[in-house]
Amino acid sequence: MNASATVNGDFDLIATGDNGRLYEALRHANGTWVGWTDLTAKIAGSPGTITEVAAATTTRGDLQLVAVSGGKLWHLRATAAGTWSGGGDLFANSSNPGTATHVAAAGVAGALQVLVTTNSLYHAIRAASGSWSAFGDAGSAVGGVAGPIVSLAMGRSRFRA
Questions:
Q1: Which of 18, 63, 65, 82 has the most CB atoms less than 10 A away?
Q2: pTM, whole model, 2 decimals?
Q3: Complete domains list, the chain, with CATH
Q4: Strand (E) positions, the chain?
């Protein structure tokens, strides 16, 4: 699984390797590339084998990563200046809706919106201040989930039905 985000005109490509580690490559706005960097050690709490990752850009150009490992969600953040903070176990900083299988993230109005699949679909928000909301049951809120979810993505919409 992989993810990408744009920070200050630079393109961040985020990928999981077949070794279960998290990597970043960067394409600058001028077209030059910076090769792969292993980000796994930057996550507080030693997440173990990463199976999926989502990325989003939030306030001030922060790059936010949310990864699935061992049924948990792990968070990692980089400022636009490139300073990484470990974040760590997202369930410990929010609430635990169950065993995580898939994750999606989007930056909306300065906050990080996160969706995760477990036995349903759950949603939490990381405010620009750094505080997390509890995970709410988004599956029930939308009238149920049509069968098992095998992939997940999200983005900011300008339109409402």
A1: 65
A2: 0.89
A3: 2-141 (2.120.10.70)
A4: 2-7, 10-16, 22-27, 33-38, 50-58, 62-69, 72-78, 84-89, 102-108, 111-117, 121-126, 136-137
